[in-house]
Amino acid sequence: MSYLRPLPGLLFALAISVYQPLGYAAVSTSYSFANITHNNAGAEADGEANLKVEVIDLGSHQVRFNFTNTSTSSLTDVYFDDGTLLGIASITSSSGVNFSQGASPPNLPGGNLVSPAFVTTAGFLADSNAPVSGNGVSQGEWLAIDFDLTGAQTYSSVINALALPNNGGTGDLRIGLHLQRFASGGGNESFINLSSPIPEPETYAMFMAGLSLMGFLARRRKPLE
Question: How many CB atoms within 10 Å of residue 91?
Fold first, then answer.
């Protein structure tokens, strides 16, 4: 007669705790972007590989969108097609970046190329001040836009809306970026965030640790004679 030894409670809890879905939202969640204008193949690939927004829970009904750009261009305009936010609370940036609320043009260039069309929520936009490209976000720089949330919304609400459960329709949150002066072709391109978060390196590490631990425990199972 034999049976499988039960896992010790503490180790079982640890195994479960280190296994988290790759899209799990904790303190912050990061997203990359997809090109929608397709003006230049080199610029398109450059932007998609090097644009990132980190969505950070600030507490007190506030969320920060922290943008970085390591492409060969300048990020000059940010737009929000919104379903969860209340309004911009503040705009801050690294040295060399200078943004103000409002933007010209008032809607994401090329936003009509996606379905449903990207329609900027009134007041939920910002662009770099003149000189436009010089004050945009380039390599080694960052831009942070803090939003107040409506009373019923939370950080989790924002993450859920960024997942585009309605395929970009009512209630979803989309972020649009416009970039200028790509080294490849020197032109402009527009991008919209992907709905799936970027898996963070520590998430992979925790995932693999969980699998390793469960494998180790499985090998420790012995029959009772």
Answer: 16
